[in-house]
Amino acid sequence: MLNSVIVVDDEASIRSAVEQWLSLSGFSVQLFARAEECLAHLPQHFPGVIISDVRMPGMDGLQLLERLQADDPDLPVILLTGHGDVPMAVEAMRSGAYDFLEKPFTPQHLLGSLRRALEKRQLVLENRRLHEQADLKSRLEGTLLGMSQGLQQLRRQVLELASLPVNVLIRGETGSGKERVARCLHDFGPRAGKPFVALNCAAIPESLFEAELFGHESGAFTGAQGKRIGKLEYANGGTVFLDEIESMPLAQQAKLLRVIQEQKLERLGANQSISVDLRVIAATKPDLLEEARAGRFREDLAYRLNVAELRLAPLRERREDIPLLFEHFARAAGEKLGRAAPLLSGVQLAQLLSHDWPGNVRELANAAERHALGLSSPNIEVAPAGQSLGEQMEAFEAQCLRAALRQHGGEIKSVMEALQLPRRTLNEKMQRHGLVREDFVGRE
């Protein structure tokens, strides 16, 4: 909170007087008699101001200032000095102290200096937050590729949900990138340094499911040699991603529900519960509530998993992202091979945009790798059933606009000249395709 103040002074009377003044003025005050105690209890990214005496036994105020500056040069430190310490305090201000007050000082003088210091701290922390948000957004754009409106909305949702302690259900077709989105929810949130454990529920035999998920003790069943940590326990503190959750056996669904509700589990063959701190991200193709109505999935578990839902659009619904994704996969494949991927011809680009991509991004990646190898992709059809010529032309137009905007870094005049379009026509087309100039500035 931005009214937090830490006071460090070895004189109990000074600490008491300062606490009284500040508390009456609405500040949250924490007191320490020694600098070492302050450092031991100082939280990371402390959002307030430190007020410290200069002369103290053990570590003095100047040494405390040096330690604080090493960890956070922008943390405001106000020094309290005796008359003989004024030259020393002036030198300390040159070294980074925010202010110094000579004893005895008035409450008004202290409050004035403190409020200015807190205003500065607020500006610094807000600036840091904006920089961190911009950095996260930039990193996410490089991970979840695409410029379609759907992809831009998905990135906004991922950034918002990544920091929230809620379970997430991801809906999408096979190959649409559900695990990549789950990984982003983990990597861009507070659990990023903890384990991310992915488990495909459809790939585990039902007879092994419980042991795989919950682990077992030695001798829990025939062939159980030694103790084994299950996937849920291994993910403690982090995230477990359960792909194709609709394939989980009903008996294990009940046990998973208990883990989510109580944050506790029991290994097979054990009587003792183990506390776990988990975030659960599940992925499914069908609607889990429809599966529940059909008796194939527990309704209570469906609601527990679907605190927040993300829907991944199939590639055929965001065709304008196809060229960018194809280029990315082809370039990555070319780098592995030590060769540049061949450029796409206009006919090949039209084929990419016209294909329905039933395998979604996974199929597109395979086609890009074949292209990098110089091989054809026989599964790409020129004219898919159900897509009109107008729809194909719209997708191609959007890609041409996006390519020109990216090439010229969002410079509208250069785009007008390159595409030979008047300003009004270009604006109308950009608006129709959801393109915003600012998204391309500096991206030549």
Layout of strands and helices, then pairs:
Blueprint: E1 4-8, H1 12-24, E2 28-32, H2 35-41, E3 49-53, H3 61-71, E4 77-81, H4 86-94, E5 99-102, H5 107-141, H6 149-162, E6 168-171, H7 178-187, E7 196-200, H8 206-214, E8 215-216, E9 228-229, H9 231-234, E10 239-243, H10 250-262, E11 264-265, E12 274-275, E13 279-284, H11 288-293, H12 299-305, E14 308-311, H13 322-337, H14 346-354, H15 360-372, H16 389-407, H17 412-419, H18 423-432
Helix pairs in contact: 6-7, 13-15
> How many domains?
3
Tally of individual helices: 18
CATH architecture of the largest domain: 3-Layer(aba) Sandwich
The largest beta-sheet arranges its strands as: 2-1-3-4-5
Give the low-pLDDT segments: 381-385
The portion of residues assigned to helices is 40-55%
Q: Would you count the extended β strands for me?
A: 14
In the CATH scheme, the class of the largest domain would be Alpha Beta
β content, as a range?
5-15%
Strand pairing plus helix content: what structural class?
alpha/beta
Structure commentary:
There is one protein chain. Residues 381-385 have low confidence and may be disordered. The strands form 4 sheets. This protein has a 5-stranded parallel beta sheet with strand order 2-1-3-4-5, sandwiched between helices. The relative contact order is 0.07. It is flat. 48% of the residues lie in helices and 13% in strands. The chain has 18 helices and 14 strands. The longest helix is centred in the first third of the chain and has 35 residues, at 107-141. The chain folds into 3 domains: 4-129, Response regulator (Rossmann fold); 143-313, 3-Layer(aba) Sandwich (Rossmann fold), CATH 3.40.50.300; 316-440, no CATH class. It is of the alpha/beta class and 444 residues long. The protein has helices at 12-24, 35-41, 61-71, 86-94, 107-141, 149-162, 178-187, 206-214, 231-234, 250-262, 288-293, 299-305, 322-337, 346-354, 360-372, 389-407, 412-419, 423-432, and strands at 4-8, 28-32, 49-53, 77-81, 99-102, 168-171, 196-200, 215-216, 228-229, 239-243, 264-265, 274-275, 279-284, 308-311. Helix 13 (322-337) crosses helix 15 (360-372).
